[in-house]
Amino acid sequence: MPSVLGMLEAREKKVREEVARLREEADRVQAALVAAEGALVKLVGARETVAEVLLGEQAGQGGELTRSAVAGSTVPHRGENAVAQVLAPEYQQILRVLAAPEAAGGMRVKQILAGLGWEATPTRVEGVRSRVKRLAARGWATEVAPNVFASAMTTAPAAAG
């Protein structure tokens, strides 16, 4: 008849093996999640690039289309009377962080992530970097130094209205 300690040791060994197996599975799932998030960022960028190219072709035909969003475009060009409410929520959040007093002089992407309360994973860093560069390209933000961004709404003089 096995001893109680022997039975406990055998049970502990089984549980340790299960914990190790679950940790390996969690690592595999985490790696798959990071890869999927990276693919998502690339697909969003590709879709927006295609929308920009199509917008450029339409602008050559009609002229005025370069100043407004097209279907599928999440960041329209900032016009004279544009308000941030026309942007998708994640872009509005980034602009709020850039407009905060602690953002005076500009912020790096990891500082923006901290202001959003998001974890600075590589996927998130690249996702926010692409969004803030898109905001800068369309006049909503400015790149005051390489990879340092500020809100164009606070750095540029207000438009006469």
Roughly what fraction of the amino acids lie in strands?
5-15%
- SSE ordering: HHHHEEH
Distance between the termini: 91 Å
**Structural shape:** elongated
Q: Report the average pLDDT across residues.
A: 80
Radius of gyration: 24 Å
Question: Strand tally, please?
Answer: 2
Q: What CATH first level of the largest domain would be assigned?
A: Mainly Alpha
Q: In the residues, how many domains can be counted?
A: 2
Helical content band: 55-70%
Q: Which fold name corresponds to the CATH topology of the largest domain?
A: Arc Repressor Mutant, subunit A
The major β-sheet equals:
2 strands, antiparallel
The helix tally amounts to 5
Strand adjacency order, main sheet:
1-2
Low-confidence residue ranges: 62-72, 155-161
Features:
mainly alpha, 61% helix, Arc Repressor Mutant, subunit A, disordered C terminus
Describe the structure.
With 161 residues, the chain is mainly alpha-helical. The protein has 2 domains: 1-73; 78-161, Orthogonal Bundle (Arc Repressor Mutant, subunit A). Helix content is 61%, strand content 6%. The chain contains 5 helices and 2 strands. The protein has a two-stranded antiparallel sheet with strand order 1-2. Helix 1 packs parallel to helix 4 (122-137). The longest helix is centred in the N-terminal third of the chain and has 59 residues, at 4-62. The radius of gyration is 24 Å and the shape is elongated. The termini are far apart.
